[in-house]
Amino acid sequence: MKKPTRTSIFILVLISLLAGPANRLLAAGNLLIKNATILPVTGPPINGGDVLVIDGIIKQVGRNLTAPPGTRIIEASGKYLIPGIIDTHTHLALSGTNEGTEAITPEVNMAEVINPDDPAILTALSGGVTMVHTMHGSANVIGGVNVVLKMKWGQPSEKLVVREAYPTLKFALGENVKQSNRMLLPGRPQRYPATRMGANAIIRRELLRARDYMAEWERYEKLRSSKNPPPNLLPPKKDLRLETLSDLLRGKLYARCHAYVATEMVEFLNLAREFGFKIGAFEHAWEAYKITDELLAAGVGISVFIDSWAYKMEAAEGIAYNAAYCTKRGILVSINSDSSERVRRLFNEAGKAVKYGLTPDEALKLITINAARQLGVDRLVGSIEVGKQADLALFNEHPMSAYTRCDLTIIEGEVYFDREKLLLEREAAAARKGGN
Predict the structure, then answer these.
(1) What is the DSSP string of 367-425?
(2) Which of 82, 89, 173, 281 has a beta carbon 3.0–4.6 Å from 301's, enabling a disulfide?
(3) Residue 298: which region, alpha, beta or left (left: phi > 0; alpha: psi -120 to 50)?
């Protein structure tokens, strides 16, 4: 039998403590968080500050605030309050990641395979993560439509979806696409493409098909709405794959492109310019530091690891200064986990950026407001401001400290993770067991 890891034991303890219906939300309703060091992200720190939350919305930020009767008071003296952390690239809470049997599968949709019982949601909450962009994998040159979720453990899947976020479509370049032929069943022919040039060619081919498909429908609609439509007029055949790619060309979807190598990213920028589609961000983007001028000219951001470079050949020229250097150049940068384990320590990942040249305030933006801007939800979350949703995380020390931990995670004014309460319940359960 496989020995359980510390992470799996931690998750099992959390599940056992939170599984009961009465404990699905550790506290609900209005909140007043008092005497915290507030790091709003978009403004200066507030020492000894309060945040009043009414109906899940931040109503006041300041000092010596009062709350309506019945409001839960959270004493946060000596602790740090930050916006809920946002992970711009992960694959958690899905019951499927890659539809890797074909190179082109934009018709698949991650929103249809959400798994609200994935224990990785608890792992994320334990690290102050309140929102994730969970994505199709990188086995396909053109993958599926991604989805943005709130980490509302215990809620049904439809209540996790953040419908205000940008709709995004996954693209991938490089080694993952080339090597995905290994995923196919023995005896099946090798899947096209198997080279980098093939990846470029197949994207162009499919976008040309989508452009022709759009033109067919435009001609049909024009004839149908004319004064004398042809008597035997029939609509074009509906194609779900081309429907999705047409939405990309119409600007209804943003491309999110898995890429490592600078030359590949430049070629994808050229494709976007040729076909007029929008790129939300490059994922991983280890050689982004080489093409900052091109990224700035296109207005394209990057979603990256902080220091996990050189783990495969196409990451060999990655540098740990990538995120900091690109930030200093003015590129919109976020730090992602791409992991159901690393997601619980994104604040540590962001903290490493201080070593590579950013201030603590700049580093904190990598996992809060920058991430919110990349996902199109910065009007809702990403900073502590009046009118925004109360997605918050309370830490016992500065979130960029190597010694900090998340004690409380709040989504829309509801406490979904309370470390102290969980520890007390675990001790009580142990005492009951010992008494028996």
Answers:
(1) TTHHHHHHHT-TTTSSS--TTSB--EEEESS-TTSTT--EEEEEETTEEEEEHHHHHHH
(2) 281
(3) alpha
C-alpha neighbours within 13 Å on the C-beta side of residue 69: 0
| Host domain of residue 38 | 6-435
Over residues 293-311, the mean pLDDT reads 95
Reported as a single tens digit per residue, the pLDDT across 360-398 is: 999 999 999 999 999 999 999 999 999 999 999 999 999
As beta bridge partners, residue 393 has 82, 409
Q: How many of the other CB atoms lie within 10 Å of CB of 391? A: 30
**Side-by-side strand order, sheet with 254-259:** 142-145, 168-172, 254-259, 278-284, 301-304, 333-335
Contact 303, 89 (CB under 8 A): yes
pLDDT computed for residue 1 by the predictor:
42
Establish if 330 belongs to a structural domain.
yes
Express each pLDDT in 125-182 by its tens digit: 999 999 999 999 999 999 999 999 999 999 999 999 999 999 999 999 999 998 876 5
243 inside domain: yes
CATH for 333: 3.20.20.140
Q: What is the DSSP letter of 74?
A: E
For the residues 332-342, what does the mean pLDDT come to? 96
Structural domain count of the chain: 1
Task: Please name the amino acid found at residue 361.
Answer: D
Instruction: Please name every residue paired with 58 in a beta bridge, in sequence order, or none if there are none.
Output: 53
- Give domain status of residue 156, yes or no: yes
Residues with Cβ within 8 Å of residue 141, at least 6 apart in sequence: 103, 104, 171, 172, 173, 177, 193, 199, 202, 203
Report helix, strand or coil for 176. Answer: helix
What pLDDT sits at residue 186?
60
- Domain assignment present for residue 1? The answer is no
**436 close to 429: Cβ distance less than 8 angstroms:** no
Task: Answer yes or no: are the C-beta atoms of 389 and 59 closer than 8 Å.
Answer: no
